[in-house]
Specification:
five-stranded antiparallel beta sheet; alpha+beta; four-stranded mixed beta sheet; 12% strand; Beta-Lactamase
C-alpha cells in the first residue's frame, strides 16, 4: 500500500503528476467533480479546509510578526534551543542554492527561514519569510501548515498547494512536540523543487524533528513554579508569584482564569469571546490584556499568543486533577466554592459548570454519606436536590438524619414545582 504521506508513488512521473493534480485542483475550485486520478485524501481534506478559510486560491500569507516583536518572540520560543540541530542536519540543503529550511511555531508563524540569497528572494515573493503566518487558515495547503493541522510528517507536492502562487514549490515538514507535555511546539520544513518529492526528504525532516525532541527531553529546564491562583469561592482572583501578591479586579480575574485554562496560549479574539461572548470587542479585551500584562510583568505573561510564561498552580485545576486520580475526598476538601461565582463571562461560566459537574458526579458515584453530607452542609450544596435524594437513599430507615433529609427533599420539590410531596425518598433525581 502506498505511503499516504508521500507525494509521489515509486516510479511516478513528476511532470505528469503535476498536470493531473493541477487539473483536479482547478476542477475543485470550480466546484466540479474531479475526473482525473484521485487526489491524496490528506490533500483533498486540506483543500476543503483552505477553501472555507481563504477568500480564494490567490491569497497571500500575512506577516504577523516583524522587527523587535519577532526577535523577542523567537528568542523566547522553545525551538530556539534546537536551532543548532536544525542547521546541523538540514543546513547542507539550505546552503545548496535550491532549498529553504524553515521553522514555524504551533500557529504556523515562520520563526526562521534560511537558505542562499537567491532562494530567499524567491521565497520572499510569496511571503515565505520570518513572521509570516503559514497555517492552512492563512496560507492554504502547504507542508508546515498541513503538518500542524494533521499532526504528522508529510510532503506537499507542487500543484497540491491550494494557493496558486506556491505551486512551483514542493515541501516536506514534520511537527515537533514538547517531550514533557506533548504540546505541539511547531514544525520543521524543507522547501524546494519537485525533486524533494521522494522518501528521503520526508525521512530527513522526520529524523530532524525526533532529534530536536530528544534534545529537549534531555535538557529540560525546571519550570518556574513559584505561582498560585485562588479563584474558587471568590469573585476576585488572588495571584501569588515569587513573593508578590495581586488581588485582581473582575475582568482581570476572568482573563487570568481563561489563560490558566488554556496554557498553550490564546488569541485576543478567543479571549474576547470567552469574556464577552457575542458582544466581544477585540479592541476592548486587548486593552485589558495590555493592562494585565503591565501589572503582572513580561516575566509572567506574554502575548502572541497570550499565555502565562510560568507554571502557575490554580485551585480549580487542582480540584479536577485530584478527581482524575480518583481522590474524591481530597478534591472536595480543596473545593472552596464555585469558580468566580459572580462572573457571567461565557468562558468562566463553562469552566465553573465543568468543575462543579465533575465534582458532583464523583460525589454521587462514590456513594459516601460523609462526603455527600459535607456537600449538603455547604452554601452551594444546601439546595442540591439530587444530592439530597442520593444522601437519603443511603440512610437507614431508623437513621436520625432521615426525617430531616426527607423534609428537605419535600421542600425542594415544592420549591422547584415538581409536584405534590410524596413519602419516602423520591426516585427521580433533579439538580437545583
Amino acid at each position: 500500500m502506498p505511503n499516504p504521506w508521500l507525494a509521489l508513488d515509486a516510479g511516478a512521473d513528476p511532470v505528469e503528476r503535476m498536470r493531473q493534480v493541477g487539473r483536479a485542483h482547478e476542477l475543485f475550485l470550480a466546484g466540479q467533480k474531479q475526473d482525473g486520478p484521485a487526489v491524496r485524501s490528506v490533500v483533498a481534506e486540506s483543500w476543503r479546509r483552505s477553501a472555507v478559510a481563504l477568500p480564494g486560491p490567490d491569497a497571500t500569507a500575512p506577516i504577523e510578526l516583524s522587527d523587535d516583536d519577532l526577535e523577542t518572540y523567537r528568542a523566547a520560543h522553545p525551538l530556539a534551543r534546537v536551532l543548532p540541530i536544525f542547521r546541523d542536519l538540514l543546513g547542507g540543503l539550505a546552503e545548496d542554492g535550491e532549498h529553504l529550511m524553515a521553522v514555524c511555531d504551533a500557529y504556523g508563524r515562520l520563526l526562521w527561514v534560511e537558505g542562499t540569497a537567491k532562494v530567499l528572494r524567491a521565497g520572499e515573493r510569496m511571503n515565505f519569510v520570518p513572521g509570516a503566518r503559514w497555517d492552512e487558515a492563512h496560507a492554504g495547503t502547504n507542508a508546515p501548515g498541513t503538518a500542524l493541522a494533521v499532526d504528522h510528517p508529510l510532503q506537499i507536492f507542487a500543484t497540491e498547494h491550494f494557493s496558486r502562487g506556491v505551486q512551483r514549490w514542493t515541501c516536506a515538514a514534520a511537527p515537533i512536540h514538547d517531550p514533557g507535555t506533548g504540546r505541539l511546539l511547531g514544525a520543521i520544513d524543507v522547501t524546494g523543487g519537485d525533486h524533494l518529492a521522494n522518501p528521503h526528504s520526508l525521512a530527513l525532516v522526520r529524523a530532524t524533528a525526533l532529534a530536536a525532541e530528544a534534545y529537549l527531553r534531555g535538557h529540560r529546564s525546571a519550570p518556574a513554579t513559584a505561582g498560585s491562583v485562588v479563584a474558587l469561592g471568590r469573585n476576585e482572583a488572588l495571584l501569588t508569584f515569587e513573593g508578590r501578591q495581586w488581588r485582581l479586579g473582575r475582568r482581570h480575574s476572568e482573563l487570568l482564569v481563561m489563560l490558566l485554562a488554556h496554557p498553550e496560549g490564546s488569541t485576543g479574539d478567543e479571549l474576547a469571546f470567552g469574556v464577552y461572548g457575542d458582544d466581544a470587542s477585540p479592541v476592548t479585551v486587548r486593552a485589558e490584556l495590555s493592562r494585565l500584562r503591565r501589572a503582572l510583568g513580561p516575566e509572567l505573561m506574554e502575548s502572541r499568543p497570550y499565555r502565562l510564561r510560568a507554571e502557575v498552580e490554580a485551585d480549580f485545576r487542582t480540584v479536577t486533577a485530584l478527581l482524575e486520580h480518583g481522590r474524591v475526598a481530597d478534591a472536595l476538601e480543596a473545593y472552596a466554592g464555585p469558580l468566580l461565582p459572580g462572573s457571567d463571562a461565557p468562558g468562566v461560566a463553562r469552566l465553573r459548570r465543568l468543575v462543579d459537574d465533575r465534582l458532583r458526579s464523583a460525589l454521587l458515584a462514590a456513594r459516601d454519606r460523609t462526603l455527600l453530607q459535607t456537600w449538603l452542609h455547604s452554601p452551594w450544596g444546601a439546595d442540591d436536590l439530587e444530592v439530597w435524594e442520593a444522601y437519603a437513599r443511603l440512610l437507614a430507615p431508623t437513621a436520625p438524619d432521615r426525617p430531616m433529609a426527607l423534609t428537605r427533599i419535600r421542600e425542594l420539590q415544592v420549591e422547584f414545582g415538581l409536584g405534590p410531596p410524596v413519602s419516602g425518598a423520591p426516585k427521580v433525581a433533579r439538580r437545583s
